[in-house]
Design brief:
The structure holds two protein chains of two kinds. Chain A contains no helices and eleven strands. By secondary structure, chain A is an all-beta fold. Classes of the chains: A mainly beta, B mainly beta.
Chain lengths: ~110, ~110
């Protein structure tokens, strides 16, 4: 089945540690996105990539980094510079040339920093 | 900066009552989308509206896009417990292909 796979589903880390969240899609979509969700805050855009080897900062990129070396993969690294990393992280993708058309979301990764 | 606002933030209804959530954008939108997120789940696409004044129905759900393409609403008739979740509206950001989301309306339904 086509879709987006995020891993791990749950992750616990100590303060000061970098963590990398995986996002893989087999939908042949060009555009991929990372959103962060906190209670009552909706979805806030961290980074997005419209094509391989290119990515752009979203509204809350500080303390995060990404790469887009393959069309299928868009991993997100939460660095120790991110002041409040505990959150639900959602990866999404969308087809070519789309300023229209739905976002497909993965099931999310819940990160807890102890 | 660009903003998308939704009201109310929370709504509790008795099963069978109607429910409406409203979405307002600070900018004119080329289209607006609605998503539903069940508790513990991820957002799932419901619908996209493109035309000014457009109205679309999906069974008990009615979606409207305002004439000025700056506001939208979702109305659920005769709510059921399966309608529980958070409903988000989203529109295109002014740059790039990402969407900007409202903060959502969380609906709870008691039977």
């Amino acid at each position: 089945d086509g879709g987006i796979t995020q891993s791990p589903k749950y992750l616990f880390r100590k303060e000061g540690q970098n963590v990398t969240l995986s996002c893989e899609q087999n939908l042949n979509h060009d555009a991929m996105y990372w959103y962060r969700q906190d209670p009552g805050q909706g979805l806030r855009l961290i980074y997005y990539s419209q094509i391989v080897n290119d990515f752009q900062k979203g509204d809350i990129a500080e303390g995060y980094s990404v790469s887009r070396e393959k069309k299928e993969s868009f991993p997100l690294t939460v660095t120790s510079a991110q002041k409040n990393p505990t959150a639900f992280y959602l990866c999404a993708s969308r087809g070519r040339g789309a300023n229209t058309g739905e976002l497909f979301f993965g099931e999310g990764s819940r990160l807890t920093v102890l | 900066g660009q903003q998308v606002m939704q009201i109310p933030q929370y709504q509790h209804v008795q099963e069978g009552e109607d429910f409406t959530t409203y979405c307002n954008s600070s900018t004119t939108l080329s289209n607006i989308q609605w998503y539903k997120q069940r508790p513990g789940g991820h957002p799932v696409f419901l619908i996209q509206l493109v035309k000014s004044g457009e109205v679309k129905k999906q069974k008990r759900l009615t979606f409207q896009f305002g004439e000025a393409k700056k506001n939208s609403s979702l109305h659920i008739t005769a709510t059921q417990t399966t309608d529980v979740g958070t409903y988000f509206c989203a529109g295109p950001r002014q740059a790039g292909t990402a969407l900007i989301f409202g903060k959502g309306t969380t609906l709870s339904v008691s039977s």
